[in-house]
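queue> holo job accepted (magnesium ion)
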Amino acid sequence: MKGTLAIGKAWILHRGGETGQPSERTLDEAFEYETSRLSAFIQDSPSPEVFSAHLEILEDPLLRDSIQRNVSEGLTPSESVKAAEEEISAIFNETGDEYFKSRVDDLRDVCRGLVEYLDGVPDNSFENLPKDAVVVAPELFPSDMAEMDLGTVKALVTRKGSPTSHVAIIARGRGIPFVSGIDIDGINTGDLLLVDTGKAEVKVNPSEIEERAFRSRMAEDKGIPEGMIQAIRKHGVKILGNAGSVKDVEEAIRSGAEGIGLFRTEFLFLCRDKLPSEEEQFSIYKETVEACQGRPLTIRTMDIGGDKPAPGLDLPKEDNPFLGMRGIRLSLNMPEIFKEQIRAILRASAHGKIRMMLPMVTRLEELVQTKALVEECKASLRSSGSLFDSDMEIGVMIETPAAALISDRLAAEAGFFSIGTNDLTQYVMAADRGNSSVSNLCNPLDKAVIRTVKMVVDAAKKEKIPVGVCGEAASDPEVANVLCDLGIDSLSLGSPTLIKELSLH
Ligand code: PEP
Ligand code: MG
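queue> job finished
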C-alpha cells in the first residue's frame, strides 16, 4: 500500500479561542465572516460538496435561533454558539439517523469557525505551518484541510476522528497519511514522529535503529527510488541479505540475495541458560549454508555484550556495556567457548562457501589472535579427520572508530571488511544508538561518519579486499547512494522485500 507511512517533525495545532479572551465582535459579523470563509473553500477546495454542506448548516435557522435564545438567556455570543452546538448535536444524534449523525461534524466545524472569530484570539494558524510537518491536533475539521498547505504536510495525527470522516477522506484523496485515536498529550512541537496508518500507531522520538528500520519500510512502501537502482547498477554493487535465523536466510535467498552478508549468531546464545554445544552450532551452521544454495554465507562470531546479554555466560554487570566486554573482546576472553564456535563454523564450511566475520574489532591483535585460534582449530579438526575449507576467509566488521583508523593495517591481514554503520555511527558520533534524545546525531550521513567510511573503503581498495556495508544504513536509499559512490562492493539488507526489488533490477 502506498502512502501509509510517514516521518516528520510534529507541529501542534493550538486553536484560537482556547485562551478564552473576550472580544467585541458581534454574532452578525461572525456569520458574515464564516459565510465568506466557507464560500471561498467551496470555490477552491477539491471537495466543494463538503463545504456546501457546512454552508447549509450555517444558513439553517435552527442554528441561528438556538444561538439567539442562548444570548437572550445571558450567555456571551461565543458561549451561545458552543451551547447551541451541544444542543443541536444532541438532537442530530438522538434521531439515530446516519445522515443526521454524519452532519454533527459539519456542525462542529461551522461552530468552531464562529467561536474562533468571536473570541478573536489568533491561533498558531496554518500560515505558520512549517514545511514537511506532521500536524498534530486534538481534532481536525474539513475547513482545516482547506486552510493548510496539503502539498507540504507529511501526515495528520489526531486524538479524535475516524478513518471514515471527511478529514480522512480528503487526506486519502491527497495521499496524506492520517491516524486518529492517538494519545497526543505526550507530543510536543518538534518531536520526531513515525506515523504508521496501517497499524494506527505513532512512535514519538524513535531510536536511531527504529528510525532506520522505519525508513527502509518507507522505501518498500513507496518503491525503490530510481537513483538507488542506478547507483547499484553503475557500481556493480552486490545485494546481500542480513539474517538472524535459518528462516531469514531462506527468505533472503528466495528474494534473490547473492549471498548472506551478515548472519548474526547471537540467537544461539541469548535467552537461554545453557550455551550451545559445538555439535548444535555445527548442525545450525550447516543447515544455514545449505540454505544459501551455493552462495556465500558470512557468519559473524558471537556479538554478545552491549545490549545483548547471554544468561549462559553469567557475565558481570557493567556500567557502560557498549564500551565494555562485547563482541570479539569477550570471545577472546573465553577462548575455549570461542574455539567451539570456530570449530563449528569450520566444519560447516565443508558444506558450502562460508566466510567468518569478527564483530567489534578495535585492534589488529584481535584479528591476529583469532587467526591463531582458527589455525589451532584447524589442526585439531585435521587430527580428528573432520573436513573443512582450509581457505575460509576471515573478515573484520568495521564498527569502531579505532578499527577505521587502523583500517590500512587491518586490510593487510583481513580477507574482507564489512562496515557496521549502526555501531560505527554511534561510536563516531558518541551518541547512543538506542537513545532517542540524541537520534539526530546518530546520522550515518554526518560528515564525520562519511569520512570514516571513505577511509575504510580506500584502505580496502588499496589492499584489494572486498568491502561491504551491513548496518541499517545500507537499506536507506539516501545513504546507500552515497555508499555506492564511495566504492563499496556490497549492501547487506535486512528486508527481503527490498532485496527482491533491488535484485530484480
Ligand atoms: C552494526 O553495528 O551496524 C551491525 C550490523 O551490527 P549490530 O547491529 O548487530 O550491532
Ligand atoms: Mg554492531
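queue> The radius of gyration is 30 Å.
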